[in-house]
Specification:
Blueprint (H helix, E strand, L loop, with lengths): L1 H5 L2 H58 L5 E3 L5 E4 L1 H7 L3 H4 L11 H13 L3 E6 L8 E6 L1
Antiparallel strand pairs: 1-2, 3-4
Length: about 150
């Protein structure tokens, strides 16, 4: 501020530059403060959402594992990726026999494959009949909603 009071051209120029510099520092610090505040708010929000997602996943896993019905998951290729214990009891197989089973292979039951294709294409599929897994000792009467 003293530079502006001196009155010389150089002093006024230096004083003006210092005022601009001070203004830029204040503006930048406010922006940085807002960015930091928003970042913290996003992190807190993300943490809360992750906690909700984990709670939801835990609830789903509990329902999946304790369901009175046999439940399985399969991927977009019709390959079984997970199943609950009830399904293993219903089909009378162990987990190793079922996981990785490709329900769309040529060796698979054509009616099951159609139900799985329908589920993948339309969101729902249905099979009712005797289901035979390869290497299983017998077929299992089954009604399946995919």
């Amino acid at each position: 501020m003293q530079f502006l009071l001196l009155g010389s051209t150089l002093a006024i120029l230096i004083g003006t530059m210092l005022c601009l510099f001070l203004g830029l520092i204040i503006t930048t610090s406010r922006r940085l403060s807002r960015i930091i505040h928003d970042n913290i708010a996003l992190r807190v929000s993300m943490s809360a959402r992750e906690a909700q997602l984990q709670e939801s996943e835990n609830r789903y896993r509990s329902i999946f594992q304790n369901s009175p019905l046999g439940v399985l998951h399969f991927d977009e290729h019709g390959q079984v990726t997970d199943c609950n214990h009830k399904l293993l009891r219903i089909l009378q197989v162990n987990r190793a026999q079922l996981l990785g089973y490709r329900m769309l292979d040529r060796a698979a039951d054509a009616r099951v494959a159609k139900a799985v294709r329908d589920a993948l294409a339309k969101g729902t599929g249905y099979y009712e009949g005797t289901f035979y897994l390869p290497r299983a000792s017998a077929g299992t009467p089954l009604r399946a909603f995919f």
